[in-house]
């Protein structure tokens, strides 16, 4: 299909990628800082486990659609999964890292603004590039190395605003010295937060409760998630290249082992689960986050079929801008000069990394010498 509703598939792919990259981060951030006062905060470990179950069901449905028969799909699962348990063992490493990464994302967005997270999370480009060189024997051009250096500079500038601020809390303790002045400043700050976030809270029908945030914990969570994402992605790519199995069979194997790790991660919250159940604190926005996280990767894999690396880079860059604008208007985020400059550098680095390498000019490319044609043979008459 060349176009849908008058929009070309390339531009439609750009819009879908932009929405997927922006909406997931913003909804996840909102779900962690804004909850109904009558409900407890939902558990990240249960959300990750349910997302893995949704991925499993989705992969199974896609296999049924491709095989055009449930009987044939059952035969494939028996031959490729049940009779080859060693293939699932190969997936233990990436699935465990993906489970760790998904849990760290909730920790990061509980301690960082959505815009700051979006910019810092681009460090996964650096980790993926490093592991690609080490594990997949890929070679990076000077343009890509330059973009990686710019990426590190940009992320460093962005984090100057957060690490320097230390531990932030939207709810300030007014006890102690300077009681009258502190209470007055707190009242002004509280009124300002209620005005700026009122429209978003009313849209979801929930009251906003912002908990204590620690930017350093959020930064460590993002960096660890970037490293695990890069290693797991390269490991999974290496397995796919050395195997003849279908990609969706591999995703099903990955989902099985990922569900096991996510189930084990819930033991950390077993006491809270015993008290309130697995679905405690869940709301409509929570389910939207889980479904988006579960289907996001599969959606991007399908959309990239119509979009090239340039469009993908544009979508990532634009999602950073969109997250920043929405965070300013609805999450009371105040970007500093360092943050704005760092964001521009990261966007430039992302664009350069996804841009095709410039062709070698003609005067540099070696030219083959033209071979002179031998003179025609003449026969005596």
Automatic annotation (TrEMBL):
One Pfam family this sequence matches: Nuc_sug_transp
GO cellular component: Golgi membrane
Subcellular location: Golgi apparatus membrane
Metal-binding among keywords: no
GO MF annotation terms: pyrimidine nucleotide-sugar transmembrane transporter activity
Principal subcellular localisation of the protein: Golgi
Alphabetical list of InterPro entries matching this protein: EmrE-like, Nuc_sug_transpt
Transmembrane region(s): 12-30, 42-65, 145-164, 216-236, 248-268, 280-304, 311-331, 337-354
Domain of life: Eukaryota
Topological relation to the membrane, as annotated: Multi-pass membrane protein
Family the entry assigns: Belongs to the nucleotide-sugar transporter family. SLC35A subfamily.
Protein name as catalogued: Nucleotide-sugar transporter-domain-containing protein
Organism of this sequence: Lobosporangium transversale
Lineage start: Eukaryota, Fungi, Fungi incertae sedis, Mucoromycota, Mortierellomycotina
